[in-house]
Each structure stands twice: as C-alpha cells, then as structure tokens.
Amino acid sequence: MTRRSFLTTAGATLAASTLTHAVEGIPLEHAPLPYAPEALEPHIDALTMTIHHGKHHATYVTKLKEALTAGSLAGDDTIALIKDIASLPEAAQTAVRNNGGGHVNHTLFWKWMAPASSSPRTPDGKLAAAIQTDLGGLAEFQKGFAEAATKRFGSGWAWLIVRPDGKLKITSTPNQDNPLMKGIVADEDLGTPILGLDVWEHAYYLKYQNKRPDYITAWWNVVNWNEVARLHAQAAK
Ligand SMILES: [Fe+2]
Predict the structure, then answer these.
(1) Domain membership flag for residue 34
(2) Average pLDDT for residues 167-181, to the nearest whole number?
(3) Mean pLDDT of the 174-185 span
C-alpha cells in the first residue's frame, strides 16, 4: 500500500466510523408517541397524528418484520439494517429500504416535534453557532430547509444532517430514504440526520390539503430544538 492509498483508506475509515458512532440504534418496535396526539395542535392536528403514527408508522414496522422473517434476517437495530442495504440478500433490499427507512424516519420524526411550549422556539448554544457558521444563520437555514421540503416532488423528506466532517448540510430524499443509506443516497448527501420533515401527503393533507408550504411554516412551531441540539452534540463529536 502506498502512503497515498493508506491515507485515503484511513480517511475513508475515519469518515465511516464518524457515521457509525454518531447514531443511536432503533429497535424494531412501534413505540408509543412521546406526547398525546392532540399535543401539537393547532399546528399538527390530532387526527393526522393518530393515523400517521397508529396506521402508517405501524404498517412500516409490520412490513419490515415480515421481510426480515421471510429472509431469516436479524433485525435488532433498524439503523444498522438501513445503513448497508447492499449487504442484505437482494430479495430483502427493497422492503428494508422502504419499511426500514419508514420505521427509522418516523421514530425520529416523533421526537423532532414537541408541544410548542415545551422546547425553546429557536436553537441556541453550539447548534445555533453551527447553523450560523455552516448555513448562514437561522433565517437562511429555515429558508433553505423549507425550499428543500417544498421542492421535493411527490413523497419524501427534507433533512438537516451532520456530514462526516462535522459540518451541517440541508438535503432531501424521496420516499422513505434516509441520509444514512450508503449506496442509495449520493455520497455528498450522506450524514447523520439531526432534523427531518415528513412531506408525504399523509403527514399534512387532512389539515392543509394541497398547501404543503403552509404545513412547513406551521411545523416550525413544534420543532423540538432540545432534541436537535442533543443529536447535533452527539454527531459533531
Ligand atoms: Fe410519514
């Protein structure tokens, strides 16, 4: 091995381990919502929360369990499963991508929201400083994030991720893809998600119908900045 290829390999290993160690595992279980379905009113309505969590999220969990059983695969940690989908048997890959992604994304999403009065309404400390340095400040970040969420054609997610170099980046994925999915998400958009917004119609249609931008604007009122800061501290170590 030449010095150059050693350095390249070492760099790649460091980047991979940054991603590996920054993310908490997610068990294959459908946990209850961390608050009452009506707790996010009037911004996100109770019926949407009840159906979104109780039906949509539950279905991702059920279908993931079925796919793992069919493929005789272990699935203690859904994060580990979705990070390296290419290593799974081909027959299980699409089901894990869609339903494993769906389970991870929604498990995180419930915690990224909280009743408006229970969390600071803007980020502070190191998270606020990183948003300033990497994204030009809170207003610029919210503008860029809302744009990513609005422009996502069809179903998908907008993300705030921590890249392997520790910097923040706004990205977006289709369907239930997640920024941890190596080989599926473009390399430059891989990272640890510390905030995400579900822009599937099932997340907003009952209250906002076709007005996705209104849903996005209202959603900022229930962002759980404490949780975003906690994940940022963990991922940016
Ligand atoms: Fe959803």
Answers:
(1) no
(2) 98
(3) 98
Quote the ligand 1 centre to 22 CA distance (angstroms): 24
Q: 2: which 2 tokens?
A: 């030449």
Q: How far is the CA of 110 from the centre of ligand 1 (A)?
A: 10
CATH number at residue 54: 3.55.40.20
22 band by pLDDT with thresholds 50, 70 and 90? low
Domain extent for 124: 1-23+41-237
CA 137 to ligand 1 center in whole angstroms:
28
**How many domains does the chain divide into?**
1
> Do the bridges between strand 192-198 and strand 168-174 make them parallel or antiparallel, or are there none, so unpaired?
unpaired
List the alpha helices (DSSP H) in the chain: 3-22, 46-51, 58-70, 78-83, 90-95, 101-111, 125-135, 138-151, 205-208, 212-219, 225-235
Distance CA 109, CA 59 (A): 16
Burial category of 81 from C-beta neighbours within 10 Å (exposed 0-12, middle 13-18, buried 19 and up): buried
Q: Which residues surround ligand 1, an ion (CB under 5 A)?
A: 198, 200, 203
- Please give the distance, rounded to the nearest whole angstrom, from the Cα atom of residue 95 to the centre of ligand 1: 16
- Contact by Cβ (8 Å): 170, 159: yes
Centre of ligand 1 to C-alpha 13, Å, is 33
Q: Give the chain's mean pLDDT.
A: 91
Span from the CA of 166 to the centroid of ligand 1 (angstroms): 28
Is the pLDDT confidence value at 26 over 60? yes
Measured in Å, residue 43 CA sits from the centre of ligand 1 at: 16
Q: Is residue 32 part of a domain?
A: no
CA of 221 to the centre of ligand 1 (A): 18
